[in-house]
Specification:
The structure is a homodimer of 502-residue chains. The first copy, chain A, is an alpha/beta fold and 502 residues long. Chain A folds into three domains: 133 residues, no CATH class; 116 residues, Aspartate Aminotransferase, domain 1, CATH 3.90.1150; 220 residues, Type I PLP-dependent aspartate aminotransferase-like (Major domain) (Aspartate Aminotransferase, domain 2). Chain A is 45% helix and 10% strand. Chain A contains 17 helices and twelve strands. In chain A, the strands form three sheets. In chain A, strands 2-8-7-6-5-3-4 form a seven-stranded mixed sheet, with helices on both faces. The longest helix of chain A is centred in the N-terminal third of the chain and has 28 residues. At the A-B interface, helix 1, helix 5, helix 6, helix 7 and helix 9 of A face helix 1, helix 5, helix 6, helix 7 and helix 9 of B. Chains A, B: It is an enzyme of class 2 (transferase). Chains A, B: Pfam families: Aminotran_1_2, DJC28_CD.
Chain lengths: 502, 502
Amino acid sequence: MANWHRLTEARIRKAEAEGTLSGLAGEGRLLPERPGDALIDPSDAVGYRIMAEAGALPEEITLKARLDAARADWQAATIEADKRRHMARIADLQMRYEIARDARRKFLRQAPAPAALRLDPGPSEAVLAPAMTGPRYPDLIARLPATVPFTGPEEIERVQGHPFRARLGANENVYGPSPKALTAMQAADAEIWKYADPSHLDLKTEISTRMGCRPANIVFGEGIDGCLGNLVRLLVAPGDPVVTSEGAYPTFAYHVNGYGGTLHKVPYRDDHEDIAALFAKAAEVDAKIVYLSNPDNPMGTWHDGATIEAALEDLPDGTVLALDEAYIEFAPEGTAPRIDPEDPRVIRFRTFSKAYGMAGARVGYAVAAAPLISAFDKVRNHFSMNRSAQHGALAALQDEVWLGELREKITVANERIATIAAANGLATVPTSTNFVAVDCGHDGAFAKRVLEGLARRGVFVRMPGVAPLDRCIRVSAGTGPDLDILAEELPKALAEASAPVA
Amino acid sequence: MANWHRLTEARIRKAEAEGTLSGLAGEGRLLPERPGDALIDPSDAVGYRIMAEAGALPEEITLKARLDAARADWQAATIEADKRRHMARIADLQMRYEIARDARRKFLRQAPAPAALRLDPGPSEAVLAPAMTGPRYPDLIARLPATVPFTGPEEIERVQGHPFRARLGANENVYGPSPKALTAMQAADAEIWKYADPSHLDLKTEISTRMGCRPANIVFGEGIDGCLGNLVRLLVAPGDPVVTSEGAYPTFAYHVNGYGGTLHKVPYRDDHEDIAALFAKAAEVDAKIVYLSNPDNPMGTWHDGATIEAALEDLPDGTVLALDEAYIEFAPEGTAPRIDPEDPRVIRFRTFSKAYGMAGARVGYAVAAAPLISAFDKVRNHFSMNRSAQHGALAALQDEVWLGELREKITVANERIATIAAANGLATVPTSTNFVAVDCGHDGAFAKRVLEGLARRGVFVRMPGVAPLDRCIRVSAGTGPDLDILAEELPKALAEASAPVA
C-alpha cells in the first residue's frame, strides 16, 4: 500500500506541477461520506477527487494498451533476460492500471477493486517490479505553488505571437552599459573557458573602497535575486516570520515562501513603503527579516537616508533589515543611509542590472557585517558568476563619467513619460528610479486592461500586483523611439480600456 | 536575559563563521562543575568556553575605549536628537562590554558580575538601546561548517604570490569554445542590458531535439552545481538520507550538507564508482537521491550505458538517480544510458563547462521527467542565467564539427599526460574525460606533496580527497605548452616529494 500512496501523491504533484490543479471546487476538501465509503482512507479520497477534477487520472485505456503490448513482448521473448525485463515492465504497468481504475471507481463511489496489485490475467510468475515512484518531495516543497515571480517578455511575445516594439516593463536600462564595460566583457569572452574567481576579490576590492567597507563585507550573487534567496535561506526556517510591504518585490516574497517563512505584510502609505509600520510589524511578529526597497519598486518613491538611519533605532532586536538599493544610483544624493558596514542589523543590496545597464550579466551583491557575509559562503553556489560579467562590472564601476551622463538621460526619459501621461490626462508618481508609475486613474482591472492593450500594440510594461498600487502601470525609462511608440499607443490603449470589448 | 543569550550565540556564530572554532579541546562540552558555578546556565558555560578557547571573546579593552569615546560625544552634544543617538550607542556598548567581562569571569571561574546590563557609572537617564544582536540563524545553518567545496586557482595564486603558468586543475577546456560560440557571445554582449529569457526556450528546444525529449524535460541552472543544489533542495529535508561515493564530487556533498541531508558513502571499486554498492546502500538507507557521475570525476573512469540501464532495475523505490554527465561528450559512444526522459527515477545533468569550453559562462542543465523539471520552477532563481552565455551555448551546440575536432585534441593531450607520467615511472588511470588521474605511487600525503611542489612551480592541478583515490593527482588535458611545463616540472616535484624539506 505504501507504493500506492506514493503513486497517488506523485500523480497529484504532477497535476499540480502542470498547473491543472488550481481553483478546483473540491481542492483540499474530503469527499462527503457515504455508505460503503469506509474503505477509503481520507487522504486518498482528497487525492482522488483532486485528480479526477483536474483530469489528472492516468488514462486507463492507454495503460491497458501498453499492458497488452508488454504482454505480447513477453510472450515473444526467448532469452531469459529479456523475459525478465518485460515482466518487470508488465508488473509496473499492471500496477499503474490498477491504481487508475481504482481511483476512478473510488471517485465515482463505486466499490473498490477487490484485489489490487495482483496480476490477472497474465503471466503467473510475475513479481512486483520496482514501483518507479520517482521523487519524494518534502512537505514544504510539495506545498509550494508552481508560480513564477515574473514571466519574461519573451514568453509573452511567444504567447501573443508578435515581438514587443518597446521593451519598457522590466526596468532594464535601455541605454546599456558603459562602452568600457562592453569592451571588457567582449575581451573576457575569449577566456570564457576559465571559471570565474569564486572569491570575486577584484570586484570586492573596487567596491569596498567606494562603500567605505572591507572586501569581507561584500558577497556576490546572480543578481540581487540570488543574494536575496541566499539571505532568506540563511535566516528563515519554516514558520519564521518575515515582514514586507503589500505589493513590494514579488521575488523576495517568492524566496520567503520557498523556504517556508511566514510573510506578514503592511500596506504602502501614500505610495511609499511605510518604514514605521514595517518595523512595528517586525516587532509584533518577531521577524527574522524586514524587507525595504529604497528607492521603492514598483512605485519609484523613496525615503532620504537620514530617515532610515533614525528609524534603525526602532528596528527590533534580532530582526535584520534587508535594504534593497537596486535603484540607488538614480536617486538624489543622501538617499542611501550611512550605515556602519559592521552593523549587524542591516544588509544592503546593490546591482549592476539597473544603472550599470547589465541586467543580462547577473551581477548583484550584498553589503553587511563580515559574520553575516561569511555565512553566505556556507550555502552559496561559489562558481555561479559569469566570468565576462565579472570583468564587465569592474570596468563599469570605473566609468563614472558615463554614469553621470546616464543619470541625465534617465531624468529626461522620466520627464517625457510624465509628459506623455499628462497629455492623456494621467498623473504620475514622483520617482527616483529609471521607471515611472503612471496612475491610470481607475482600479486595478482598468490598469490591467491598459497594460494588455499596450502589450497588443507592442509595448511591454508591467504593473503592481495589489491595490491601491495597481491603479498604476510601471513604465521604464525608454529611449526616444521607445517613448514615441508609447506616446502613440497609450491613448489607444486607454480608449480601449475605457470601452472594453467583452 | 534573552538578549544576552542571543548575543552570546551571535558571537559564537561569528567565531564559527571565521573558522576559529574547529578542533577546539572544549568544543561542545560543558565546563566541569565546581563549587560556586551554580549560577552558570549549562548552555552559557559551553558558549563561554568555546568563545574563550577560540579567542572569540569581545575585547573588553577596545569596548571600554569605544564606550568612553561615546560618553564624551554624549557630553559634548548640544542638540537633543544627537544626545539621544549617542545614548543609544552608549547603552549598546555598555551592554556588550558587560557581557564580555562577564563571559571572561565565568570562563575563569570568577564570580558572575553582580548587576549586568545596568549602566554604571554613566548618564543616568540611559535606557537599554536596541540590542543590535543582528541575524538569528536557524540551527541547520548555524551548524553548517564555513567550508568551501573548492578554492579557486586565483585565491591560490594570491596566497602563493605568483600566477600559475599552466592551469590544469579545474578540468576546464583550455581549447575554449567554438569560435561561433565566441562570436555569438560577443554579439550578445551589446544587448546585455536585457535580462535573459528565463524560460530558456530556444536552448531547450535545440537540446530537446538532440536528446529525444521535450523542452518540458529540461531545466537550466548556473552550471551543474546550480542544478544539483536545486535538486537537493527539492528532495532533501533535514535528516533525509542521500548516497554518494567516498571521494566523489565534493560540491554535491556540500549541497546535501547545506540542506541538512545525511550523507551515506560507499567506496570506489577499482577506481570506478560502484553502482551496485551505491544502489544497495540507497535501498538500505531509503535514500532520496543517489549520486553517480559517469564518466567519473575525479578518476576519469566510466561505465557503459547498458550497465547503467540494467542497474536501474535495482534502483530502490523512491530513490532518484542523479546522473552527472558533465564529461559525457568526451566518452565513447554508448557511455550515456538510454533512459526514457519521462522515467521518474532518473535526472541527468549536462553542462557547457567541459567539452563546450564555456566554464566561465555558467550554463548547466538537467533532463528528467516533466513533473520533476517543473518542480524546479518552484525554487530556482528564474533570472539567473547570463544572456550572452545563453546565446553562446546555442551557437556552441550547433557547431558539431568543432566538437569532433576538440575530442581529438583532448585524446592527444590525455595521451601526452600518460606519456609524461610514464617517463616518471608513474601509471595513469584510463580516462574518458578531459583529465587524467596520475597515480603518484604512494599515499595521499605523498601525492599532496607532489601537488604542492607543482603549485610552487606554477602548475595548478587538483587531487581526490580520500584514500585510496588520493594516491593520484588529477591533471586536466592542457595545451602543448601547458604540458611542456608539466613535463619539465613533474620530475622536480616528484623528487622533492620523495625527500621533503621539514
